[in-house]
Amino acid sequence: MEARLIDSREIAPGVRHFGFEALGVERLDFLPGQFTSFKDMIEGKEITRAYSLASAPSGTNRFELCLNRVEHGHLSPRLFDMKPGDRMEMRQPLGQFVLRQPPRDSIFIATGTGIAPFRSFLQAHLNESSPSFTLLFGVRYESHLLYRTEFEELALRYPHFRFWPTLSRPDAEWNGRQGHVQTHLAEAVGERRDVDFYLCGLKEMVDDVRGVLKGQGFDRKQIFYEKYD
Ligand SMILES: Cc1cc2nc3c(=O)[nH]c(=O)nc-3n(C[C@H](O)[C@H](O)[C@H](O)COP(=O)(O)OP(=O)(O)OC[C@H]3O[C@@H](n4cnc5c(N)ncnc54)[C@H](O)[C@@H]3O)c2cc1C
Question: For the chain, N or C: smaller number of CB within 10 Å?
Fold first, then answer.
């Protein structure tokens, strides 16, 4: 299958939001949280990389991605260089990082572009009768808070959705949460033991948070995760 770029826009320094359409299908079937893979030939070698779908299934062949450009990386700079109309080989979405059914009150923990599957989760699953969700989102700088306005609007609309951004390198004007996501876990959980955790981002954060949660006595069956590296 091929994906054709419709448009892309910078949403933070070094991060772009991409709109694609899957060619040859009327509808791209996937579950919120799953990833697709893009494939290209680079210096005679086939390079494949996974990308979480950042949008909910739309009933059409359109889908969205959120990527950061990895300096000296193989495929991500290629994707950043794509112009509307350009195509790249893609695979049918798959993956196990999906919301447990039936969903329970959950804490979503993301760093950087690890936010992508949670945007899809929230678009698809957050509504008046959904369980409570907390999104704990860690980035270095305020300008890296991807999709901030969207999440703030959701938090205003749904009292059972909490958006908790935290900055590891805040400037003097920031009066929100500071430090890594780990710092705010205990407050997010409170006394509850019957919540699920969904973690997405680079290995270092995911492994660390899993360690903290296990140390607090949470069962590994309550902890779902996707590592990007
Ligand atoms: C299931 C899954 C879903 C993914 N979804 C996304 C996504 O939605 N958005 C996204 O930007 N990436 C995502 N990734 C990472 C992506 O697959 C690539 O690893 C990334 O684009 C780098 O590829 P590259 O060929 O440019 O770099 P390579 O030449 O493969 O260089 C790899 C280097 O980049 C680092 N790296 C990998 N991912 C990142 C990242 N996101 N930020 C910073 N450094 C990174 C690795 O630690 C390694 O040092 C996902 C990975 C997996 C396994």
Answer: C
